[in-house]
């Protein structure tokens, strides 16, 4: 079982899931995503996923359930395979460029898809030819 070194479970699941599952919520998240988040943190510095624990607005940036306004049945967030990241010391665009430039080597080997043209970094570990560039889903 993989638990993140740099993230607490409340940063990756919404409040209702945290309340119901507590630490068992780690089991709802793909370990490849969790490993990737730690790798991103080590490469690019502090990352915000969910921040509701500290009074912030973000609660749907990791696992999403049907209560989310952005819920989609087949979203990678629904399966615990995606996270939307904001970086303290760099921008999502810089990180995106860097990851795409490195995609042939072993860095970030579980990142299989990246969302383009958004101000956050969406990474996911879906089953596909890597690295797939996806456009944001329309609401
Ligand atoms: Zn996303």
Automatic annotation (TrEMBL):
Highest rank taxon of the organism: Bacteria
InterPro entries in the cross-refs: Zn_M74/Hedgehog-like
The protein's name in its UniProt record: Peptidase M15
């Amino acid at each position: 079982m993989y638990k993140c070194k740099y993230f607490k479970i409340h940063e990756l699941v919404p409040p209702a899931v945290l309340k119901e599952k507590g630490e068992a919520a780690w089991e709802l998240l793909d370990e490849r995503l969790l490993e990737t988040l730690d790798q991103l943190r080590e490469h690019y510095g502090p990352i915000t996923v969910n921040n509701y624990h500290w009074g912030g607005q973000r609660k749907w940036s990791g696992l999403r359930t049907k209560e989310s306004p952005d819920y989609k049945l087949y979203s990678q967030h629904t399966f615990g395979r995606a996270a939307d990241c904001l970086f303290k010391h760099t921008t999502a665009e810089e990180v995106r460029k860097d990851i795409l430039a490195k995609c042939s080597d072993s860095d970030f080997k579980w990142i299989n898809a990246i969302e383009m043209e958004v101000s956050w970094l969406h990474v996911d570990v879906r089953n596909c030819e890597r690295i797939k560039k996806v456009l944001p889903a329309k609401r």
